[in-house]
Each structure stands twice: as C-alpha cells, then as structure tokens.
Amino acid sequence: MIPTATDAGIDDEQYPLTTQEFLERFGDVELELANGTERIGDALDRMDDETYESALDARFAVYAAVSHRAVGRRFYSDRDPTPPGSPHGPDQVSF
After folding, report:
1. What is the pLDDT of residues 46-70, one digit of tens each?
2. What is the 3-state secondary structure (H, E, C) of the chain?
C-alpha cells in the first residue's frame, strides 16, 4: 500500500515520531488503494495523535487509518456466518 520510495523513507526516520512529525514528512504521499487513492495525511487525520516508536508502528497506524477505498468489495465476506435471525441467510436444506 505504501509506495516503495516512501517505505525506504519511513525506515530511514529516527523514532520515536509523533503523528504531527510523521505528517510533516509523509502527509502528502498518495497511497494506491483497491478503489482509488488517498493521502497519508487524510488517513491519519481520522486518528488520534500518538507517538510511533518504530517504522512498523507508523505503518500499522496508516493501515488502520485508510478509508473504505482500501477494501476491495465493501461489506462482503463469504466467510462470515449469517447472524442469528437474519432474513438474508441461506435456505435451510434437509437431507
């Protein structure tokens, strides 16, 4: 999700970094998402301020903050069970 050049930049930073410091360096970077693009700054604006102790912490914050455009097919999963009482479940089959 984060472009390669930005990846290297994130790794080269001195940590800890606050959200504001991270945004000053990477806020304008465009992320390529499944359904469009989003700036890191726009994504992290939805989150509380924190201090990133490592590059991995910063990446996880960005991954957690991106919008629904990062999801391929929104509200879809073929693995979630149907909630009890839902009218949208499969028909019961008797053998």
Report:
1. 889 999 999 999 999 998 888 777 7
2. CCCHHHHHHHHHCCCCEEHHHHHHHHCCCEEEECCEEEEHHHHHCCCCCCEECCHHHHHHHHHHHCCHHHCCCCCCCCCCCCCCCCCCCCCCCCC
